[in-house]
Records
---
Amino acid sequence: MRGAADCRPFARPIREGMPKRRDGRTFGGVTSPSSRPSTLGDLRASGHVQRSVKDEIRQNLLTALRDGTDPWPGIVGFDETVVPQLERALLAGHDVVLLGERGQGKTRLLRTLPLLLDEWTPVIAGSELGEHPYEPITPASIRRAAELGDDLPVAWRHRSERYAEKLATPDTSVADLVGDVDPVKVAEGRSLGDPETIHFGLVPRSHRGIVAVNELPDLAERIQVSLLNVMEERDIQVRGYTIRLPLDVLLVASANPEDYTNRGRIITPLKDRFGAEIRTHYPMELDDEIAVIRQEAELQSRVPGFLLEILARFTRLLRESTSVDQRSGVSARFAVAGAETVAASAVRRGAVLGEDDPVARPVDLGTVVEVLRGKVEFESGEEGREFEVLDHLLRRATAETARARLAGIDLAPLVAAVEQGDPVVTGERITAKVLLDELPELPVLDDIADRLGASDPGTRASAIEFALEGLYLARRISKDTGDDGAAVYS
């Protein structure tokens, strides 16, 4: 477990190998080398070997496994469960659907798949579907290849351009996914049966790439039907015309398990065409829950590790509570948003009170209940008790964390000092310096700070306030909360 010394802000990382595109040829600073073959003849002379998308993924995955490198950067808690299943599915060449509740990392996992593609791949320059120079599939590219021969121009496409993602929404149409007749091309004199009248949709435009459909069952049934030929025969049909395009795509999707059944909103033939159905889950270990928060949260101030642990325990208690609708789940985004809210509360306090380097304290945890209770769905019988349930579970999480983090430290001297001396006042309007000045000089305070990695005044004040809150929840000292938010330990 990490200590409070690890309380610096954790920014969301950009996935290695998947930089954001800045212009036509640059992707996060990675520019296509000019030394690569620029014509079909040069490409053949270089010895380039064409591979299908699934072969490409298979070989790159095997290489990563043999070399001991992590093919799934940023994926936490799936090492022994989801990842091995997904790797077996990809090695088998299967289309995959991930089944899981909201906030289980399904989309994050899908967006990692392009890292298994070659970084650069050749395409026919100017081709609508990004066809391989060795295998043109559209009439226009076939005609150009026949006319130009080895002079056919070749461009290079980065793997970040070979991943297409579509969120299934009620307004999604067949034209969006597959394509439709382009009236402009028809007006130019072409017949309706001419394949060159087609305006291609997302799936054919992802030829030689990966297509991800989020929340697949939300597609209307007639839209789901349009994917059947793509997944089995690898061709498409547009308005009754069958266009034989040997599409080379890996189709992946995500879905809620409740919807992905015959009684749900998925048609059986489409369900049957996926080679692998893989169940995701929330982090099973507390350390994994904390690691997700650290990785995903964009913190505006320092948040000590024990506060992140409280939020992780709080989230896990919500997932176990009978008062919460577990069919909806409690997303990992809840804990992430909670950490960001706590950090923001510290920033606000710092601005109001003039603290130059604000550090989150236990007093900031109350903002999580106030701000984020709308992110949790409760059972119908709990109407009106939402705040009470959340507040109770947050207290439990704090008490469990205090017992785990402070075990072995004799806190009796601190209890005696609070009982015999002046009350200790904290709250939103109390700075870390004022809080520390209220406390007597006790060796136990140094023990607490050392245990929690508190090396500066801000984190030290947070650690001691955490110890006081733990003593209160253990019923060893009392606590009174005023209307102004001030908490008095006595």
---
Amino acid sequence: MSTRPTTLAEWQALAASLSFETRAFVDDQFVDALSGETFASVNPATGETLAEVASCDAADAERAVEHARAAFERGEWSRLAPGKRKAVLLRLADLMAAHKHELALLDTLDMGKPVSSALGDMAGAIGCLRHQAESIDKLYGEVAPTGEESLGLVLREPLGVVASIVPWNFPLMMTAWKIAPALAAGNSVILKPSEKSPLSALRLAQLAREAGLPRGVFQVLPGFGHTVGRALALSMGVDCLAFTGSTQVGKQLMQYAGESNLKRVYLECGGKSPNLVFADCKHLEAVAEHAAAAIFHNQGEVCIAGSRLLVENSIREAFVDKVLAAAERMQPGDPLDPDSFMGAIVDETQHRRILDYIRQGVAEGAQLRGGGAALERPGYFIAPTVFDGVTPEMAIGREEIFGPVLAVFGFDSEEEAVAMANDSDYGLAAGLWSQDIDRVMRVTRRLQSGQVFVNNWAGGDQSMPFGGVKQSGNGRDKSHHSLAEYSSLKSVWISLDS
């Protein structure tokens, strides 16, 4: 699609021209769910139904797994030379780039994020695919150190069938983080997009077929977690399960793996990420802008959202005022308006859940400093909300809300800040703002987190692994570490003296 919209009117015109693929993609064909069932894909900015999408279940999962296994055994992809796999995936990346406006628009319509943010997601998705494609022929096996009478080889081989279950908050970017390394390693992949945001995944299937991925190597099953997702997790024919979503669901998926075939399970789960601001940090206004964006970007529907803001008490009052001023500049708007910082909450259920947490925060005695209400307009919009005076036992200070709600804590010492930051079931991300290099190194090492952002929030590129510790999960997305996770090691010992 060559159209390059830059204004609200142009994005609206492009949206009006779109048609949606709504069927499952199985064995290189778009097909209805075997049951014939569908579910509504709803635009959360308007409450209007975009399309009725195939609702797959266990029968569809079984069919897709059979085709994925057959494709793997045929070897058209699994045994293809790495350089040739790379060429196909790079073609897919080029096709995604050529259609990035359309793909971004699908995610915006489907789950409510601002289109400017969705375009950023497309850059991340395309970059991930290209990075993993280029890494295929650069991840070597090993020759073990042996005597002259033997030769020890460590071979790296694809796992087989990988099921990827991705969330709704970054639909296509999370998809790329899962499927790019799995496909690059030579696996067959079955993608289960969220029922709240399936449309870009189905468009991606069209592009994958055009790029030349062999039949059965990449399939897409829209549907619900308790039906088709559960079936994939329990399938004896799935060798690996990759999931991004809530900790509660992640725990259930690990149980399913244990009940079935002990498939590998890579989880990127919930977070309640602390953002530590020390009094020695420079440029408080700029830091406050970053702290606000860390929670209000993507309406707070971000696994690494900086939802706990820990501020040294000597600057706390002034700093919170600056955060509130920044929040005023981040109010929700039409997701199709390129100038909107925030868009719509994904659906009515999540909208209601966030508002319930806000009411609970007030009831527990936190100081509501800004926001705290739904916007009076069609769709599901909530103003950026800031609570001060939060204490660790409050629900808004401990539980993942997944919405634009910031909990501010105060501290007086480095020791207190670290203890407060680590007092969480989660460990996905943490931020640290300080000009004291000694403090930076001390605190960074002590924070219980899969990643630490120093004097920034959410920095990094495709060379950096992404994942958590504790109940935030165990796997890693991005970088060559994720590519390694989708392959297995085979030891070969060759006797040379016979």
---
Amino acid sequence: MANIVKRKSVFIRKQEIALFRISNVSGAYIELTNIGASIVSIVVPDKKGVLSNVVLRYDNLEDYLTGNFYLGNTVGRVSNRISKARFTMDAIVYNMDKNDGENSNHGGYNGLNKKIFSYHINNESVAFYIESPDGEGGFPGNLKLRVTYSFSENNELQIEYSAVSDKRTPASFTNHTYFNLSANKDNILNHQLRVNAQKYLEADAEFLPTGRISGIEGTAFDFGDYKIIQKMALLKEDNLDGYNVYFIKQDNKKALGSVKDTISGRVLDVYSTMPGVLFYTGDFLSGQFLPFQGLCLEAQYYPDAMNHTDFTRNILEPGKEKKDTIIYSFRAEE
């Protein structure tokens, strides 16, 4: 049975911010905060059984209110970019916050990542709750979201998103944790990646989908089998040293993506009900973090889906609850 403890509680502007730990019998654990319903730590064993944290984190909880990298955050209402910060739905044009040049990114200036969620500790999980009012960030509908975290005896971290709105509205939530399976002993360029995909979304210099869906075979995006990230990145011909690319899931029965560090033996398998994954190598990390110090595998709906009629999108219908799940499953190999 999971052991759940609230390890810290402080008040900022009369709002409680808290740190929670869910541990299993092996001693492995995750830590969470209600700021952005965020993952703070994931402490799991290597092939020798040594427990270490494998995600980037801030040392002070308050930094999650001001950080610029979506570190461990729940992001939305719509993750990733919306081109020109607008979309049309039901013949109505909606204008979003322009927080990424002329585009909107991760929900705009009032995205979920900086919100202080309410919470409830259950027997086996911690649930975070937030309400986003009609018009916030430009999105229609009063949205209610519950984000529930659990951590199993098999070192599986499960996230369930449950959302409901009183108006039709797009929704694409994800988690923006930066993983480093070496526990920061190296950067992530020597990690190996495998994705459950045969196709990816071609993107322009602003990381917006062009609308073209391309095959991965024989390209710098061919991670059908485990490949070293740095070696594959050398084959790229775009404006980014690393990766910021969305892969389309091929087989619903397999992990959406997997990454491993051969020195520590740690392997991460990502499963999700969502149709694809955004792979980002942390190129723009700065300050206390270095570029390529962590990588993201963000299960989500197609980026900019509202502006591409042939992309898979998630529309909440009024009063109908919609759920999606992400599972981060950790293991170690010799």
---
Amino acid sequence: MGLDKLDLAIIALYLIGITLFGLRFRKRHRSLRDYFLAGRDIPWWAISLSIVAAETSTLTIISIPGLAYDTNLTFLQVVMGYMVGRVVITFVLLPHYFRGDLYTAYELIERRFGRGLRSLTAGLFLLTRAAAEGVRVYAVSIVVSIALGTGEVASIAIITVLTLIYTFEGGLAAVIWTDVVQTGIYVGGTLVGLVTILHLVPGGWSAIHAAAASAGKLQVFDFRPNFWLPYTFWAGVIGGTAFTTASHGTDQLFVQRLLAARGQKQSGLALISSGVAILFQFALFLVVGVMLWAFYRVPSANFGKPDRIYPTFIVNQMPHGVSGLLIAAVLAAAMSNLSAALNSLSSSTIMDFFVRFRPQIDERRRIRFSRLATFCWAMVLFGLALLALQKVGRVVEVGLQIASVAYGALLGVFLLGVLTRRANQRGAMIGMLFGFATELYLWRMHVPWTWWVIIGTMVTFAVGFAASLSMRERPS
């Protein structure tokens, strides 16, 4: 069927509208506190939706349905772990972030250990977050190139430039409030898509349910004690808990939003409520994948790779108008995730490195350099997305793997800081090195990614604690 003028008009209206909406916040910041933390005056519900948007990329929208198309609903076990991880953060890490006036997660590390370890943890965040976001930006090109035929490079450039405009000007306030709008767009668009698929499959939900149930597509729990399976109950809940505790508790992308709340209680409420929304959202995307399987009944290889199934369905099967709405929904998730990445990378660059070494710079020049950092990171992510064009397989798993390879080392260091007073900076650095090396080894040995963070965390904590005791240094 393809897209027609109505679809293109909807997509263009969305792109122009969200960019102009984000630019409304460009005059609201007079300090780094305004630019990077939105003046710490964002209501909990807006932060909650922003966390959901930051956690949802194009990878989620196009790759999770592809995962369900090939397998079943067992990925939900990982999402259950996401919920548990949020509870851990609320009681273990969040109180420490609200003791003082912190801008980044890694200031907590300096306060506990020292400058050297702060630079190391912040540097690791910058490297791995940039790599993971490069894959996510590339995922946008899959959708745009199928929908508009613009080519992958041009597709990446369009989204990067438009997102950069309002992120550059509006800071975190623009990021969060555009996230709120974009979350509504992509969730609403997906619900419209779900209803449309129901009408396209002969027999509707009854036929879909009967076929999916007989094929094992509706399985949620897998209690097999097999270490090498990524989506069992044990790997999902344990791995998902460790992954979210690390991502939302140590990654500046998420911690920055928690720090923008009006207080610790509102921050915790935002975090927990976002978990409920994420559970609903992943269930929605997985069900869409099962419904697509019921519609096509062909191997995913017929589409080239699973990530192309949902975008192909949107463009070729959806009624005009609905197609444009769903493409806009996918772009909403992409832009929201990219804007979050740009602002968090910029905030860590400026606060964890630039301001520390150039403290004499006045506030106006700091904001100027913050915008420059935002622009530079946009160029870096654009370049990394071009490199990711050669990636194969499900891009959601590639993105999760890149993030996971550093999260264990980061979480282990944070837990050393908040759970024990006997760890010191040198010991923590040694533990972090061992934990990171372990996760790289797990990746190379093809161990399921769901186990990487928990194993890396335990290695980092154990080696870091033992090294600290052997060196007998007083904690700083």
